[in-house]
Protein backbone atom coordinates (compact mmCIF):
# COMPACT_ATOMS: atom_id res chain seq x y z
CA UNK A 1 0.00 0.00 0.00
CA UNK A 2 1.29 3.48 -0.81
CA UNK A 3 0.52 6.84 0.74
CA UNK A 4 0.03 7.92 4.31
CA UNK A 5 -0.37 5.03 6.77
CA UNK A 6 -0.99 7.00 9.99
CA UNK A 7 -1.72 10.54 11.10
CA UNK A 8 -0.76 11.22 14.71
CA UNK A 9 -1.81 14.36 16.61
CA UNK A 10 -0.11 15.18 19.90
CA UNK A 11 -1.51 17.91 22.11
CA UNK A 12 -1.76 19.20 25.66
CA UNK A 13 -5.15 19.30 27.33
CA UNK A 14 -6.51 22.83 27.34
CA UNK A 15 -6.05 24.72 30.60
CA UNK A 16 -3.88 22.06 32.23
CA UNK A 17 -0.48 22.49 30.63
CA UNK A 18 1.51 24.81 28.38
CA UNK A 19 1.97 24.82 24.64
CA UNK A 20 4.49 26.93 22.77
CA UNK A 21 1.62 28.07 20.52
CA UNK A 22 -0.02 29.77 23.52
CA UNK A 23 2.77 32.35 23.62
CA UNK A 24 2.63 32.89 19.86
CA UNK A 25 -1.16 33.37 19.87
CA UNK A 26 -0.90 35.84 22.74
CA UNK A 27 1.66 37.91 20.81
CA UNK A 28 -0.49 37.85 17.66
CA UNK A 29 -3.52 39.02 19.65
CA UNK A 30 -1.50 41.90 21.14
CA UNK A 31 -0.29 42.93 17.68
CA UNK A 32 -3.82 43.03 16.26
CA UNK A 33 -5.09 45.06 19.23
CA UNK A 34 -2.32 47.62 18.62
CA UNK A 35 -2.99 47.71 14.85
CA UNK A 36 -6.75 48.38 15.17
CA UNK A 37 -7.61 47.94 11.47
CA UNK A 38 -6.76 45.16 9.01
CA UNK A 39 -7.60 46.14 5.43
CA UNK A 40 -6.54 43.15 3.34
CA UNK A 41 -4.98 39.69 3.50
CA UNK A 42 -1.38 40.91 2.97
CA UNK A 43 -1.80 43.28 5.92
CA UNK A 44 -3.14 40.37 7.99
CA UNK A 45 -0.18 38.12 7.10
CA UNK A 46 2.32 40.90 7.82
CA UNK A 47 0.80 41.45 11.28
CA UNK A 48 1.24 37.78 12.09
CA UNK A 49 4.82 37.63 10.78
CA UNK A 50 5.90 40.69 12.78
CA UNK A 51 4.01 39.86 15.98
CA UNK A 52 6.49 37.64 17.80
CA UNK A 53 10.08 36.62 18.19
CA UNK A 54 11.26 33.00 18.13
CA UNK A 55 11.84 32.80 21.90
CA UNK A 56 9.55 30.41 23.81
CA UNK A 57 9.55 30.46 27.61
CA UNK A 58 8.23 27.35 29.35
CA UNK A 59 6.56 27.79 32.75
CA UNK A 60 7.67 26.01 35.92
CA UNK A 61 6.25 22.51 36.20
CA UNK A 62 6.13 21.94 32.42
CA UNK A 63 5.88 18.15 31.85
CA UNK A 64 5.95 16.33 28.49
CA UNK A 65 4.12 13.37 30.06
CA UNK A 66 0.88 15.41 30.16
CA UNK A 67 0.74 15.06 26.39
CA UNK A 68 -2.39 13.48 24.85
CA UNK A 69 -2.14 11.53 21.58
CA UNK A 70 -4.74 10.60 18.95
CA UNK A 71 -4.04 8.64 15.82
CA UNK A 72 -5.88 7.81 12.61
CA UNK A 73 -4.72 4.71 10.70
CA UNK A 74 -5.10 3.73 7.07
CA UNK A 75 -7.76 1.02 6.65
CA UNK A 76 -9.58 1.91 9.88
CA UNK A 77 -12.70 4.04 10.33
CA UNK A 78 -11.90 4.45 14.01
CA UNK A 79 -9.65 6.70 16.05
CA UNK A 80 -6.92 5.50 18.38
CA UNK A 81 -6.12 7.47 21.51
CA UNK A 82 -4.02 7.38 24.65
CA UNK A 83 -3.80 9.69 27.62
CA UNK A 84 -0.11 9.28 28.31
CA UNK A 85 2.96 10.16 26.28
CA UNK A 86 4.19 6.54 26.20
CA UNK A 87 0.85 4.79 26.89
CA UNK A 88 -0.98 2.12 24.89
CA UNK A 89 -3.50 3.18 22.24
CA UNK A 90 -7.19 2.43 22.71
CA UNK A 91 -9.48 2.05 19.67
CA UNK A 92 -12.46 4.43 19.73
CA UNK A 93 -15.44 4.16 17.36
CA UNK A 94 -16.31 7.71 16.30
CA UNK A 95 -18.73 7.08 13.42
CA UNK A 96 -22.32 5.89 13.67
CA UNK A 97 -22.62 2.33 12.37
CA UNK A 98 -24.71 3.28 9.32
CA UNK A 99 -22.07 5.81 8.16
CA UNK A 100 -19.20 3.38 8.80
CA UNK A 101 -21.06 0.70 6.81
CA UNK A 102 -21.66 3.11 3.90
CA UNK A 103 -17.97 4.10 3.84
CA UNK A 104 -16.84 0.45 3.86
CA UNK A 105 -19.26 -0.28 0.96
CA UNK A 106 -17.97 2.73 -1.02
CA UNK A 107 -14.39 1.61 -0.51
CA UNK A 108 -15.29 -1.95 -1.57
CA UNK A 109 -16.79 -0.51 -4.79
CA UNK A 110 -13.48 1.17 -5.60
CA UNK A 111 -14.31 4.67 -4.34
CA UNK A 112 -11.02 5.14 -2.54
CA UNK A 113 -10.81 8.91 -2.82
CA UNK A 114 -13.79 10.01 -0.75
CA UNK A 115 -12.83 13.67 -1.28
CA UNK A 116 -14.04 13.30 -4.88
CA UNK A 117 -17.56 12.98 -3.46
CA UNK A 118 -17.47 16.55 -2.07
CA UNK A 119 -18.64 19.50 -4.18
CA UNK A 120 -15.90 22.00 -4.96
CA UNK A 121 -15.66 25.50 -6.36
CA UNK A 122 -14.31 25.54 -9.90
CA UNK A 123 -13.87 29.31 -10.18
CA UNK A 124 -14.20 32.46 -8.10
CA UNK A 125 -17.87 33.38 -7.67
CA UNK A 126 -17.20 37.13 -7.55
CA UNK A 127 -19.29 40.04 -6.28
CA UNK A 128 -21.62 42.47 -8.03
CA UNK A 129 -20.26 45.61 -9.70
CA UNK A 130 -22.29 47.75 -7.25
CA UNK A 131 -20.79 46.05 -4.19
CA UNK A 132 -17.27 46.44 -5.62
CA UNK A 133 -17.91 50.15 -6.25
CA UNK A 134 -19.17 50.63 -2.68
CA UNK A 135 -16.07 48.94 -1.27
CA UNK A 136 -13.81 51.22 -3.34
CA UNK A 137 -15.67 54.31 -2.09
CA UNK A 138 -15.10 53.35 1.54
CA UNK A 139 -13.15 56.23 3.12
CA UNK A 140 -11.82 54.20 6.08
CA UNK A 141 -9.58 52.12 3.79
CA UNK A 142 -6.27 53.86 2.98
CA UNK A 143 -5.61 54.26 -0.75
CA UNK A 144 -2.45 52.14 -0.36
CA UNK A 145 -4.70 49.20 0.61
CA UNK A 146 -7.31 49.39 -2.19
CA UNK A 147 -5.41 47.04 -4.57
CA UNK A 148 -7.19 44.06 -3.01
CA UNK A 149 -10.61 45.58 -3.67
CA UNK A 150 -9.71 46.70 -7.20
CA UNK A 151 -8.73 43.12 -8.09
CA UNK A 152 -11.95 41.48 -6.85
CA UNK A 153 -13.72 39.37 -9.48
CA UNK A 154 -17.00 40.86 -10.72
CA UNK A 155 -19.91 38.64 -11.67
CA UNK A 156 -23.48 39.44 -12.73
CA UNK A 157 -24.71 36.33 -10.89
CA UNK A 158 -22.49 35.76 -7.85
CA UNK A 159 -23.21 32.43 -6.17
CA UNK A 160 -24.67 32.98 -2.70
CA UNK A 161 -22.31 32.00 0.11
CA UNK A 162 -24.90 29.66 1.66
CA UNK A 163 -24.51 27.44 -1.45
CA UNK A 164 -21.19 26.24 -0.09
The end-to-end distance, rounded to whole angstroms, is 34 Å
Arrangement of strands in the largest sheet = 1-2-3-4
Q: Please tally the helical runs, counting DSSP H or I stretches of 4 or more residues.
A: 5
Strand content: 5-15%
Main sheet summary: 4 strands, antiparallel
Q: What is the 3D form?
A: flat
Tell me the series of helices and strands, N- to C-terminal.
EHHEEEHHH
The parts where pLDDT drops under 50 for at least 5 residues are none
* Rg estimate, integer Å: 23 Å
Beta-strand segment tally: 4
Helical fraction? 25-40%
By helix and strand content, what is the structural category? alpha+beta
Give average pLDDT, whole number: 76
Describe the structure.
The chain is of the alpha+beta class and 164 residues long. Helix content is 30%, strand content 13%. A four-stranded antiparallel beta sheet has the order 1-2-3-4, with no helix packed on it. It is flat, with a radius of gyration of 23 Å. It has a domain of 38 residues. Strand 3 and strand 4 form a beta hairpin.
Amino acid sequence: MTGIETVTLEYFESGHTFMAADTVHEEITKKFKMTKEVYDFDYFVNNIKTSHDSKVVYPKGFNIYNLKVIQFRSGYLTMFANNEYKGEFEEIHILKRKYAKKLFNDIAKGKTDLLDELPRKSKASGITEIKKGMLLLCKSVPSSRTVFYKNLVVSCNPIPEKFY
